Amino acid sequence: MTAIRRNLALAALALLLPLASGPVGAQGFSFSQPDDSARQQEQARQERIAAQLSTPCRAELRNKKIMVLIGEVLSNGTYATQQQNYGPHFDAINERLRALGLRTYTPEEIRRQIAQAEIDAYFRNDPDAALAASKRLGASFVLRGLISLQATRSPVMAVNQVSVNMSFTLSGSDGRRISETQAQTASYAGADVRRMALTLVNEKADEVVATLYADYCRNAVPPARGKTAPK
After folding, report:
1. Helices (H) and strands (E) in the chain, counts
2. In this model, does residue 69 exceed pLDDT 50?
3. How many angstroms separate the CA atoms of 96 and 208, rounded?
C-alpha cells in the first residue's frame, strides 16, 4: 500500500508541474507584485522633460526679454486679464523660465508700462495693438497663457471636482507664432476651488515650460538690431 500511495503522489505531482510552468508561472505572477505602471509613466514623463530642457539655446536668445501674460476664460466666454489677479499662476510659469536662464518682465513692470486695454488686446488677438504694446515695453517675445477652470459637484461623492485646461502661445513681437502647447488635469477639491486649481497648474507647469523652452530655442529668431524699442 505504501508503494501504491507513493506512486499516486508522484503521478499527481507530474500532472501539477506543467500547470505551474504554464503562462502564469512564465510571467512570474504574484498577488503581492505591485503594479508599477504609474511609476513607469512618471519616469517617461521626467525623461521627456529632461530631453526638452537639454535643447541647446543660443546666447542671443537668452538675452531677449519675454513678456508673460496670464488670463482666464470665464464661463460666459469672456476673458479676465487683470494681471494682479493671477500672481501665483504667473509665478508658476515665470519662475521656471527664469530658472532656465531666460529673461522675463515682472508683473509690476508690465502694469507700469502697458495699459490694461493693451493687455486685453493680446487676448483678443488684436495684432496692431499687441505690436504697439510690445514695442513700447521693449519685449522681443510674448508668452500668452489662458487658463480655464471648471468646478462641478461629484454625483458620487459629496466633494467638488475641479478641472483645469491651460493653453500657452509664444510669439515674436511681430506676431509670428513660435510655440503652442496645452495641458489638462483634474482632481477632487475641498471648499477652496481656486487653491486646488493653482495646485493643478503647478503640477503641469514643468511639462508646459519644457515644451515652450525647447520650441523657443529651436524656432525663435532674435529680432534684428533696431527693430525693438530700447530697454
Report:
1. 9, 6
2. yes
3. 10
Helix (H) or strand (E) run with residue 65 in it = strand 65-73
C-alpha cell at 146: 489662458
Query: Do the Cβ atoms of 33 and 43 come closer than 8 Å?
Result: no
The DSSP string of 141-175 is EEEEEEEEEEEEE-SSSSSEEEEEEEEEEEEETT-
CA distance 33 to 31: 6
The residue assigned the cell 480655464 is 148
- pLDDT tens figures, 164-187: 899 999 999 888 899 999 998 888
Run of H or E residues at 130: helix 127-137
pLDDT tens per residue across span 70-82: 999 888 888 888 8
